Amino acid sequence: MLTSLTPQRAASLIFLVAFATIAGAWLFEYYGYAPCELCLKQRWAYYAGVPLALVVALIAPRNPGLAKAGLTLLALLWLASMVFGIYHSGVEWKWWPGPATCTTQAGFSGGLPDLSKPAVMCDQPAIRILGLSLAGWNAIVSLGLALLALAGLRRVHGSSSVSQ
Predict the structure, then answer these.
(1) Phi-psi category of residue 94: left, alpha or beta, with phi > 0 → left and psi -120 to 50 → alpha
(2) Dihedral through CA 84, CA 46, CA 136, CA 86, nearest 10?
(3) For a Cys-Cys bond, which of 17, 77, 85, 157 suits 139, CB 3.0-4.6 Å?
(4) Please, are residues 135 and 95 in contact by the beta-carbon 8 Å criterion?
C-alpha cells in the first residue's frame, strides 16, 4: 500500500484521519469529558493540519514543489504534536510536573481561578481507553500522521529523481 501512496493520497489520508480525530475530541467534549488547558492546546495542530492537508491534497498533482513543502510542514507539525502529546501524558502519569495553572498542586499562585469555567486538571485524565488517555492517543495518532506525511514525501522525492 505504501508503494502506491502518492503525495495526494498521503495528504488526503492525513486530512481524513486528522479530521476524524478532532471530531472525536469534540464528541468526547459534547458527552461530558471537558478538556483541560493542555488538551485544548493539543488541538492547535489539528486546526492547522486539517486545512493544510486539504490544500496539499488539492495542489499535489499539479505542483510537486508545493506538495513537497506542504508534506514537510505536515510531518513537522505532527511530530511536534506527538511530542506535546507525550509531554501531556507524562504530566497525567506524574512523570514530570505540568503547568502550575492546571495541576492538582496549582493553588492560588496565579491569582483567583476563573469560576465561570469548570476546573479541569491537566494531570487527571478524563478517560482512559485501552490504558491510554486521550493525550496518549493523540501522541500515537500524531506519529501515524507524521509517518504518512513522510511516506508521501518519499514519493515526491522518488518521482522527481532522474532515472538512467
Answers:
(1) left
(2) -10
(3) 85
(4) no
Planar angle of CA 128, 131, 133, nearest 5 degrees: 40
The overall longest dimension of the chain from CA atoms, in Å, is 69
Q: How many other CB atoms sit within 10 Å of the CB of residue 138?
A: 26
Q: Is the confidence at residue 95, as pLDDT, over 80? A: yes
What are the two backbone dihedrals, phi and then psi, of residue 132, each rounded to the nearest 5 degrees?
A: -110, 145
Take residue 98 and report the three cell numbers written for it.
505540568
Spans of all domains in the chain: 2-97+124-159
Q: What is the mean pLDDT of residues 30-50?
A: 92
- In 3D space, the residue among 12, 26, 141 whose CA is nearest the CA of residue 85 turns out to be 141
Instruction: Report whether 134 contacts 127 (CB < 8 A).
Output: yes
State how far the Cα of 99 lies from the Cα of 121, in Å rounded to an integer. Answer: 10
Q: What is the DSSP letter of 95?
A: S
